[in-house]
């Protein structure tokens, strides 16, 4: 899969990830997001901005079809619309932080949830709960999980989707921060899955969930 990758790790995960296009706003947001900004409201604004950037670029990976729209003045405008059958799935809990960003872009989109717990000692992941949209096997799926350190949680969640007959190539993983280790694990396990992230770095801000939900 062609796309943008972080230069430092380009040889390791080349063509495995698509990265949101470079912009001063994106770089500044990533800096503040990963930093030690103490004001919770300010931190929340940065988090929402990064989520929105990633969600919008993830939606760009979904198939579109041409359509004609008649404007109030009677003119005909040729545009694009999303094909039917898209849905979102968040990996609880941190993935739920990305749901509103998706709903802001697609108000009527269906969203499912997968709860995966990891053993504190072995880091082995197990599925606790899964609620998926009806007919998900025929849908394009935006899988939302903002921070990936090992990749184990995402691998388990994708396994659940595949058990429900979702095609690997129909899954777009929306992510904000990812380690090179997690990137290699996921891309080697699911080579046909599209992955979109804002940053691949050795250190991932695992405090995201606590900061976002105010439980730190």
TrEMBL record:
MF annotations from Gene Ontology: GTP binding
GO terms under cellular component: cytoplasm; nucleus
Domain of life, source organism: Eukaryota
Coiled-coil segments on the chain, per record: none
CDD domains assigned to the protein according to its UniProt record, in alphabetical order: PRTases_typeI
Annotated localization: Cytoplasm; Nucleus
Alphabetical list of InterPro entries matching this protein: PRTase-like (IPR029057), PRTase_dom (IPR000836)
Name of one Pfam family that matches: UPRTase
Alphabetic keyword roster: Cytoplasm, GTP-binding, Nucleotide-binding, Nucleus
Primary residence: cytoplasm
All residue ranges annotated as the Phosphoribosyltransferase domain in the record: 50-201
Similarity comment: Belongs to the UPRTase family.
Protein name: Uracil phosphoribosyltransferase homolog
């Amino acid at each position: 899969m062609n796309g943008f990758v972080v230069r430092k790790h380009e040889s390791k995960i080349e063509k495995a990830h698509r990265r949101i296009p470079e912009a001063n706003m994106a770089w500044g947001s990533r800096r503040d997001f990963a930093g030690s900004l103490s004001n919770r409201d300010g931190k929340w604004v940065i988090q929402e901005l990064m989520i929105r950037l990633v969600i919008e670029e993830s939606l760009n990976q979904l198939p579109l079809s041409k359509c004609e729209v008649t404007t109030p003045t009677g003119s005909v405008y040729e545009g694009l619309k999303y094909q039917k059958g898209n849905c979102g799935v968040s990996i609880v809990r941190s993935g739920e932080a990305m749901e509103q960003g998706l709903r802001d872009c697609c108000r009527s989109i269906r969203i499912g949830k997968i709860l995966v717990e990891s053993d504190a000692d072995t880091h082995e992941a197990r599925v606790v709960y899964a609620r998926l949209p009806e007919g998900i096997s025929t849908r394009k799926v935006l899988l939302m999980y903002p921070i990936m350190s090992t990749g184990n949680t995402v691998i388990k969640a994708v396994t659940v989707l595949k058990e429900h007959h979702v095609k690997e190539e129909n899954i777009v993983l929306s992510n904000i921060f990812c380690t090179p280790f997690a990137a290699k694990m996921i891309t080697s396990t699911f080579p046909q899955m599209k992955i979109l992230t804002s940053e691949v770095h050795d250190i991932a801000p695992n405090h995201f969930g606590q900061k976002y939900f105010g439980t730190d």
